[in-house]
Amino acid sequence: MWRGGDAGAGVLSLSPTEVALAAALIVVQALVSLRFQLGLHTQLLFAAVRCVLQLSVLGYVLVPIFDYGRAWLVLLYCAFMVWVSAVEAVGRPSKTFRGVFLNTLVIVGGSSSAIMAYALLVVMRVDPWWTPQYLIPILGMVLGNTITGISVGLGTIIEELSSGADRVEKLLALGATRWEATREPVARAVKLAMTPLLNQMSVVGLVSIPGMMTGQILAGTNPSEAARYQMVIMFLLGAAATLGAVASIYAAVMHLVDGNHRRAPLRGDRLLPKDTRGIFVWLWHQLVAAWQFFVRTFCCCLLRRPDRDGAYEPLSGGAGGGDAVEGGSDGAVVVGEGGPGSGSLERKASGANDSDVEAPSSLVSPRA
Question: In which residue ranges is the amino acid composition biased (Gly residues) (predicted)?
Fold first, then answer.
């Protein structure tokens, strides 16, 4: 009988020094890169630094989420995880197409939500269902495998449609629908997307001990209980990866092959090269684009700006066109007819009297 005691009783605390000793093993990979002139030693350094920073930030971020246990906070972090997963999934294939990020975001969010709802409400029956101890770790594993399935399936179908465009177009010309013409490429893409997880399920427990089971055993959980948890996780991962891969493959076919099955050829012109800027540069560009959209949407309606004296002058002519803004010798501004409002509009400069400002119609000339 298992006598491990309370969970967490046998956990060893690791200091930063001990983590640094483990990180020293990165030298082995760097030496291999230098010996074979792979040029990967710089990438290894950056990858190791990112690993340390990201996991450190994750640890500090999860502490208040687990302590407060608020549903909105847990769901907000889960939404962030889904968004990052979509960004990572679309960045792996060698080619892409317009709208792939939105498609992938919907697919990742939909498939992971369905799998997590089934796992938490039907299988584990967690109460409340948004308990961060269960939701966040399991969702992280589900998203990780979903990324793999989507990236492999998406990359394969794009490559198949690019290299085999002639065959697909011939089938379309003979009257086949886009689903009939792409049946073989879709089947190969789905098979390749499912292969990694099938291989993992075949060797689990014999060759390797999965991460979740290892963590639970280190925390003092009964190995039999940890094994049952790992079984559940493996089945969830398989379903999530398959759903995500199939949905992304079909979305790519719908986008790259025209809906008019009989006449339209393969739309290879929509394929774009891979964005190599990286996730952080991509995120910066997205934030800039969002800010520009905000400015255009909410600030373009400001057709007037204040001058130094607090009065307002129009930035441009009225909707009717043909209005002109002219400055008189005494600083007066004259606007022709047809602008906002009826008649002519005149405004004097600071310090001028009403009698000094005139706006005869002969001084108003329409804009060219």
Answer: 317-342
